[in-house]
TrEMBL record, chain A:
It is a peripheral membrane protein. SMART domains: AAA. This is Glutamine ABC transporter ATP-binding protein. Its main location: membrane. The keyword Cell membrane applies.
From TrEMBL, chain B:
This is Polar amino acid ABC transporter permease. InterPro entries: AA_ABC_transptr_permease_3TM, ArtM/GltK/GlnP/TcyL/YhdX-like, MetI-like, MetI-like_sf. It is a multi-pass membrane protein. Belongs to the binding-protein-dependent transport system permease family. The chain crosses the membrane at residues 25-46, 66-86, 98-121, 133-156, 279-298. GO terms for biological process: amino acid transport. Residues 94-298 form the ABC transmembrane type-1 domain. It comes from the Archaea. Keywords: Amino-acid transport, Cell membrane, Membrane, Transmembrane, Transmembrane helix, Transport. The keyword Amino-acid biosynthesis does not apply. The keyword rRNA processing does not apply. GO terms for molecular function: transmembrane transporter activity.
TrEMBL record, chain C:
This is Glutamine ABC transporter permease. The lineage of its organism: Archaea, Methanobacteriati, Methanobacteriota, Stenosarchaea group, Halobacteria. It comes from Candidatus Halobonum tyrrellensis G22. InterPro entries: AA_ABC_transptr_permease_3TM, ArtM/GltK/GlnP/TcyL/YhdX-like, MetI-like, MetI-like_sf. GO terms for cellular component: ATP-binding cassette (ABC) transporter complex. Residues 29-216 form the ABC transmembrane type-1 domain.
Length: 256, 316, 238
């Protein structure tokens, strides 16, 4: 946790979040705070509401109850496009714009949302691609890139908007095992540079080494929330121990 | 290859309703409207063929005078009754002519199918015959249907004479000679389009199917006949629906070689009562009824013959 | 084409008749081409927004937008279910659109719009939902996302469907015969119906059919070339 004065609001505050699809309750009163430069990893069985939680943060999904505030401002009082500009998102299946080169993928938001000139946008895009190690692939189309490269372009696209917070929705789940490392490497660099990150991932090696906190979500409830040492060594709940054990044996590999 | 595609969504207007209750009511209403529409049409045909058992041929079951003058002077309502009176007065003659539209469509698509299957098979599997098929298909698909009808009707006067000479043509149940010429034209044209739909469907059957057929000892022809075609023809149903809808609409071109089908009947009446708009709108409503019926019918057929587990029943 | 066309020697009387009237037919060809182009432009101008309205109209929260979407769908069902000759007659006689060329353009154009709507609707729906989400997640508005992300991909995918539509419209211009528009088929009809020349029908229809055939062929090849030219390297996995 960072050491700001107690009167400062947290960068992200999620308070008593409720979300349902039809009769199914997906999120059941979830609350947590994130300070600037935190890296929080969200784990839990499939269907536990992890992705939904991320999508509530940038309002790709609307929620029924509770409040989310970014830098002290409730997100429902913000313009949704402005909110999303400040909150970057990386998707499980990359979702690169299929008709644009890597460079133009990054440029589009700069041009249309931030109003950069073509030259400015291009320079910034190349800088971001350089940062994720893809300066030489700027003119490649998504279909010409490997999955790992596509996901790194996806990260560059989000970073270009200068977000305060980055959301990662299972960024490595769609990748072949040998490509996972390059993406985790980029994420680790980001964390080292002080980016605030909220990640849904099953990569336990990454969680152990990089996360400031791990949250275990099950059945729409936040079962346990604490630093990695606590959850891995001294979990308060039996369920947490079982789940993390199983994940570690499946995804414990120390990629990148 | 999907030429003339995208005509099969006539019922998608009601497709956005999510709840099942609504949909059931919608379906029921559709069936009811269909039954009413066709019940009325068959009753009319029966009446006209039998020389007028219920009412004199081509006269309304309900006298149009019933609506005439009702609420005269009242805006909108008076106009609606006037339109109703008009519809009741002229619809019987149009329904009478609709018979030829249906005959042209049904006979042509059936005969066209008989030609289309070997045409498609030879385009896919043949050598020399593949070239003959390609030439035929591309020629017929590359030129306007109306030009094709003109060639048959004006270019081969002996064809018309031949049909006129046949016993019974133009008398009793047999229609006039021009109808036969039109059927030939639509059949030849439709065969080319149907062949392309079937070819596309044949090519979408996995090649392993024919290999497997040969491996159990079937000949090539038997393999195509008993393994590939039964699958391909199911895949061809959506395209075939388009073709049916297309023929219903384009049968109206027979009017230009004097066939007194629906469109020509509407035109003839309009040229004597000068109510062009009303007559063409009335004709359009009848065409629309037939097209919507054809679409729903083919969707039903598609669901019935669908192989369980293979999409196609639930397609689109 | 130099007019009049020099008539080669040694021809039959019917072929001589065709050559003598080459310029007359040439005018018809020009009308056919102009009618095809004008109708396709009308069809595109109305069909593309209608396609967008059909897809996004039904998801909209606002009742008037949903209403527009439904109206577009119903108009499409009617236009696609009515014979083109009836639509042409209505345009000419009922709406009183004049001259005949404009009536035919309106009829063929709006009918084509109804089909192009389906083409664009299908193409838009084939672009994955993830594309829209990704665009929204960098802060683009819904309009910007449609305009810069969904449509550029959808338009590429609609080229093959558009190719079919071009050939259909081209061939159906001949149905403007019904209102006496002097396009290619009408002109040839007038020629072989004139007294003393009825036997020239084969020569005339041969020439006219060849013209339609060449035009369809050329349209198909050029749109296939266009499809190649606009395709995204490596294919699309949107």
């Amino acid at each position: 946790m960072s050491s700001e004065s107690p009167s400062d609001p947290p960068l992200l505050r999620v308070e008593d979040l409720y979300k349902r699809y039809g009769d199914e309750e997906v999120l059941n009163g979830v609350s947590f705070d994130m300070d600037a430069q935190d890296v929080q990893v969200l784990v839990g069985p499939s269907g536990s509401g992890k992705s939904t939680l991320l999508r509530c943060v940038n309002r790709l999904t609307e929620f029924e109850g509770g409040r989310i505030a970014l830098d002290g401002t409730p997100t429902d009082e913000m313009d949704e496009n402005d909110l999303r500009r400040q909150v970057g998102m990386v998707f499980q299946d990359f979702n690169l714009f299929a008709h644009l080169t890597a460079k133009r993928n990054v440029m589009l938001g700069l041009r249309r949302v931030r109003g950069h000139s073509k030259e400015e946008a291009e320079a910034r895009a190349l800088e971001e691609l350089e940062q994720v190690g893809l300066g030489d692939q700027a003119d490649s189309y998504p279909a010409e890139l490997s999955g790992g490269q596509q996901q790194r372009v996806g990260i560059a696209r989000a970073l270009a908007m200068d977000p305060k917070l980055m959301l990662f929705d299972e960024p490595t789940s769609a990748l072949d095992p040998e490509l996972i490392g390059e993406v985790l490497g980029v994420m680790r660099d980001l964390a080292d540079q002080g980016m605030t990150m909220l990640c849904v991932t099953h990569e336990m090696g990454f969680a152990r080494q990089v996360a400031t906190d791990i949250m275990f979500l099950e059945g729409g409830h936040l079962v346990e929330h604490g630093p990695p040492e606590q959850l891995f060594e001294n979990p308060r709940h039996e369920r947490t121990a079982q789940f993390l054990d199983r994940l570690t044996s499946l995804h414990g590999g120390d990629h990148g | 290859m999907a030429e003339r595609a995208a005509g099969t969504d006539a019922d998608s207007a009601s497709g956005s309703r999510a709840r099942f209750g609504d949909r059931d009511v919608g379906t029921l209403a559709t069936y009811l409207a269909g039954a009413l529409f066709w019940g009325w049409i068959f009753l009319r045909w029966l009446n006209d063929w039998s020389g007028g058992v219920f009412v004199p041929a081509r006269q309304a079951f309900v006298p149009p005078s019933l609506f005439r003058g009702v609420a005269a002077g009242v805006p909108v309502v008076g106009g609606a009754f006037e339109a109703l009176a008009f519809a009741f007065e002229y619809a019987p003659a149009l329904v009478n002519a609709l018979w030829l539209t249906v005959v042209l469509t049904v006979v042509s698509i059936a005969l066209g199918f008989v030609i289309a299957v070997p045409l498609a098979a030879s385009r896919v599997y043949g050598r020399v015959s593949a070239w003959v098929s390609v030439a035929y298909i591309e020629l017929l698909r590359g030129t306007p249907l109306l030009a094709q009808l003109f060639v048959l009707y004006y270019g081969f006067p002996w064809l018309t004479r031949f049909f006129r000479g046949l016993p019974g043509v133009g008398q009793g149940v047999l229609p006039g000679q021009a109808v036969f010429v039109a059927v030939i034209g639509f059949t030849l044209n439709s065969a080319a389009y149907q062949a392309e739909y079937i070819r596309g469907a044949i090519e979408s059957v996995a090649p392993g199917q024919l290999v497997a057929a040969r491996s159990v000892g079937l000949s090539r022809v038997e393999g195509v006949r008993f393994v590939v075609l039964p699958q391909a023809l199911r895949y061809a149903i959506p395209g075939w629906t388009n073709e049916l809808v297309y023929l219903v609409k384009y049968s109206s071109l027979a009017a230009f070689i004097t066939v007194p089908e629906l469109f020509r009947a509407a035109q003839n009446i309009a040229s004597s009562n000068y109510r062009y708009t009303s007559m063409f709108v009335l004709a359009a409503v009848l065409y629309l009824g037939v097209v919507v019926t054809a679409t729903n019918l083919m969707e039903y057929v598609g669901r019935r013959v669908a192989v369980p587990g293979i999409s196609g029943g639930e397609g689109r | 084409m130099p007019c009049p066309v020099p008539v080669p020697g040694g021809l039959s009387a019917d072929w001589r008749y065709v050559f003598e009237n080459a310029c007359y037919l040439g005018d018809g060809l020009a009308v056919t081409l102009a009618l095809t182009a004008a109708s396709l432009v009308v069809g595109f101008a109305a069909g593309l927004p209608a396609g967008v309205a059909e897809v996004y109209g039904r998801q909209s929260d606002s009742a008037p937008v949903r209403w527009v979407g439904r109206a577009v769908r119903n108009a499409g069902v009617v236009l696609r279910g009515t014979p083109i000759v009836v639509i042409i007659m209505l345009a000419y006689f009922s709406f009183g659109i004049s001259p005949a060329f404009l009536a035919a353009t309106a009829a063929l154009g709006f009918r084509s719009a109804a089909y192009q709507t389906q083409i664009f609707r299908g193409a838009i729906e084939s672009v994955g939902a993830g594309q829209m989400e990704a665009a929204r997640s960098v802060g683009m508005s819904k309009y910007q996302s449609i305009r810069h992300v969904v449509l550029p991909q959808a338009l590429r995918r609609s080229v093959p469907g558009f190719q079919n539509e071009v050939t259909i419209v081209l061939k159906d211009t001949s149905i403007a015969f019904a209102i006496g528009l002097a396009e290619l088929l009408t002109k040839s009809y007038d020629l072989f119906q004139s007294v003393g020349h009825t036997t020239a029908i084969f020569e005339l229809i041969l020439v006219v059919s060849a013209a339609y055939f060449v035009l369809t062929f050329a349209a198909n090849r050029s749109l296939e070339a266009l499809n190649e030219a606009v395709s995204v390297p490596g294919g699309e996995r949107g």
